Amino acid sequence: MKLTTSQWLAAGGDRRIVPDPVTGRNQYGCTVQPDGNLIALGSSTASVISADAWDEVNRLANQISDEQAWNDMRQQLRNFVGVNDDVDVVFAASGTDAHHIVAQYVQAVNQQVLATIMVAPEETGSGVAAALVHDRLLLATVALREQNGHPRDSALIDADIDAAASAAIAQQQHVLINLIDVSKTGMMAPSLACVASLQARYPEQITVLVDASQFRLAPATLQSYLQKDYVVVVTGSKFITGPCFSGAILIPQNVAQQWQRFPVPVGLQATSHPLDWPRGFDVSGLNQPASNHGLYLRWRAALYEMHAFAKLDSGEVLAFFANFSAAIHSKLVQHAEFELLAVPKLQRDCAAWDSEQTILSFVLYRDAQPLTQAQTLSIYKQLSETCSSGLRFQLGQPVPCGLRDDVAVSALRISASARLAVAALASDGLGRDAVISWAMLALDEIIKLVNNS
Questions:
Q1: Most buried one in 126, 173, 406, 411, CB count within 10 A?
Q2: What InterPro entries has UniProt attached to this entry (predicted)?
Q3: CA 248 to chain centre
Q4: What's the whole-model pTM score?
């Protein structure tokens, strides 16, 4: 089937990536084609394809994506993460689909009722909780924030996770722990110590899935997870800034060998394609076309962005993200229109760039009164239209974050990304000051909208 590049990039997913015929934007507010007039600060939700990545996929749009092409993508992703060929890569249309695949396989391997434990469903993909629950699968959720939006004490979160896991195991259930790194507002939970303790006590009854859908992880962090035999879900459409709907599962060798004893579960027939899977997996039961060409092109765009980011010096990236975060933090605390949403410091084993917070979230106020969720959503939408500055801004979609003065509120998000780092640091880029100034302009525009709405 011959489609245009735009049609391919909106194919092989679900209705969320189909452009609205009037606005030309999908449900994430993104166009299929590059949007050179948009200041993109919303990578915590989604990104519009860059002009350079568009040229790359336009070149590949009607080339056949055969097994060799998909395996080449697997190798490129392994190279970016810095892992050996014994880590298998399964592609999925989205992070949500990737979670569904993991849950289905863990269920198949263990032949028990599967109890999944996850923190704060509102802090990950909107469909992830539902994707983890199917047939004989159960779900327990643990709050990440207090009712007032402040982070819960990590010890309390860990205690809740431990209690839920222990109770499930006592009922002869296998436990899938969904460790989120990082959430929509930049948080991690449960702690690595909590997970390690549970695994030590119940070595055969715990599987760990790392929800790294934001892909805000340095290679060393990802390598550490895989060395622990954790399964890791990533996407190319958040921090990496590829087009919407590009998921992947990184599977360590010991886990892959267990999974390969079973055919791809029947529950995946509607969404999974044979070439999504590496050799060694029995895909004979899948009835979809061999290749999801739309997914292939979206990942090719993401890999283009990855290559550009990988060329940067990691120390300079860390310094830029620190400057970016500090500048936004300073601006937020100077103005009464903002309340910075508190986030615990990210705990990393090494001082890589992922130890720096790259998602800055904030609640809006007018005359010392918090804006409602509807008012915040309205301002979010207005930012993507032409503003008083003549510019348009894309921020992360508002995330519910509790109550302020009995008002249910949401937080807007400004996010750093691989593409912003390249713009700031590459020899042919715009420079650090210019990129940081975009965030300052966005915050100035928000102040105007808050006070004039």
A1: 411
A2: PyrdxlP-dep_Trfase, PyrdxlP-dep_Trfase_major
A3: 11
A4: 0.96
